[in-house]
Amino acid sequence: MPNRKAVQAITLSVVKTACSNCNLHELCLPLGLSHEEVEKLDELVSARRRLKRGEHLYRAGETFGAIYAVRSGFFKTDVLLEDGREQVTGFQMTGELLGLDGISTETHSCNAVALEDSEVCAIPFSHLEGLSREIHTLQHHFHKVMSREIVRDHGVMMLLGTMRAEERLAAFLLNLSQRFTARGYSPAEFYLRMTREEIGSYLGLKLETVSRAFSRFQEEGLIAVQQKHVRILDIGKLKRLMSHHTRD
Amino acid sequence: MPNRKAVQAITLSVVKTACSNCNLHELCLPLGLSHEEVEKLDELVSARRRLKRGEHLYRAGETFGAIYAVRSGFFKTDVLLEDGREQVTGFQMTGELLGLDGISTETHSCNAVALEDSEVCAIPFSHLEGLSREIHTLQHHFHKVMSREIVRDHGVMMLLGTMRAEERLAAFLLNLSQRFTARGYSPAEFYLRMTREEIGSYLGLKLETVSRAFSRFQEEGLIAVQQKHVRILDIGKLKRLMSHHTRD
DNA sequence: CGCGCTGTTGAAACTTGTCAAAGTTTGTGG
DNA sequence: CCACAAACTTTGACAAGTTTCAACAGCGCG
């Protein structure tokens, strides 16, 4: 039964997800843990999960049990209003966390959807709380992560509340660029995983407005766009775009 | 020296701020603590601080050390952009927490200003972390509070991203009404502590637009406004206002 | 290889911002 | 306690930015 053995080997290698081997180390875990502490962490991450493009990691209304660390891939989170209006509240990439919104009511308050084939680590929340009672560093790191999310949200509020369309898009592109850079990718060239409509929803704009802003940036030599492929040509101008105008 | 004694008595009564006696109990603390646990909590709250209208509780850039529970009064938090643009990110009333944004970088990322004479309890953050390692309930409660803040921010993003002016104002008034109700005040009648400009900044609108929306609501019999005094006349219509239109 | 989804572009309509002026309230100092 | 100044609010007319509607192009998937 050679097949049986092969399957087992694969299964084992999938299940064995140890944080100690994970290259997200610096992104989703606190630094400076002792060897034993890292071993404890390994037990924390109960399971990995693969998602195909378009699949939901969780949906609003589902019972909350775990937060998720993106191991690879790309996600969006969105909130729906009864009348059908939708707002994308964020895009998450490798090393970022999903599900923090669920802690407050023990029910997820938004949907998380994979925008490309992705993989996540599930971190059962009660385990995380237990372990952070033992490991100060972990506790503090987790608090920082939650706080960072709040600060990030304030940035989005600023964007939605005070910026005009082109400024919003510039801010969006610069933010992506910076996050790709932090992950070792090119700061100036990347593929967008989301549609114009999803960008628009995130930025509080209609997809046509987003499209026009892209075209305008291209005309002015700030970027080169072709569908989902973006190349930033003049990052300085893009930054300056954001600190001039007034509106609102 | 009868004076000396009197002064001491006053000082003591001011310093003695014990959470166990605090009527914010249900709002800012976890329920179901044992007597000993509550006593430990009492030690947590190091100092109260009184602020006059217009005074800053903290400013963006200052070193973060404590979070604050509003004991009485009313606050706003705002973020400033280099080019002078300002965004009010929230209004905080009795029983709500301030300062969570500072955890992430150990530096406050926004300004907190008292909109009326107020009083807060300072909760040194390292103490809070220490104690929540001992008291599970406190730990979990704190995580819920942070998460709730994230969910709240998503609500604001929804508001800013998908609602038109009148919907935003309706949502704002309903939110205030609900929070006043939770504190035992009238759901239908209250004084606004903030200016039209501050409301506008929070809602991503110009003060003139806010003023016009107020007038329009008044014309249509939804509310009665006179300066800062608001009376909600038709809460149902106000709610319906938010689930009809489309925009953005 | 064609159908559908996604993206682009144009023109008109609508919402909100801008500028300006006048009215109202609040706070302060005499 | 009044008077006056400063801050805040309201309202109007006009301008600007964004959405809406519509038509079409392109790419990608089945």
Description:
Two copies of one chain form a homodimer. With 248 residues, chain A is of the alpha+beta class. The first copy, chain A, folds into two domains: 152 residues, Jelly Rolls (Sandwich), CATH 2.60.120.10; 85 residues, Orthogonal Bundle (Arc Repressor Mutant, subunit A), CATH 1.10.10.10. Chain A has nine helices and eleven strands. In chain A, the strands form three sheets. A four-stranded antiparallel β-sheet of chain A has the order 1-8-3-6. A four-stranded antiparallel β-sheet of chain A has the order 2-7-4-5. In chain A, strands 9-11-10 form a three-stranded antiparallel β-sheet. In chain A, helix 4 crosses helix 5, helix 6 packs across helix 9 and helix 7 crosses helix 8. The radius of gyration of chain A is 20 Å and the shape is globular. The relative contact order of chain A is 0.12. The N terminus of chain A is likely disordered. Chains A and B meet through strand 5, helix 4, helix 5 and helix 7 of A and strand 5, helix 4, helix 5 and helix 7 of B. Chain A binds a DNA duplex (30 and 30 nucleotides) through helix 8.
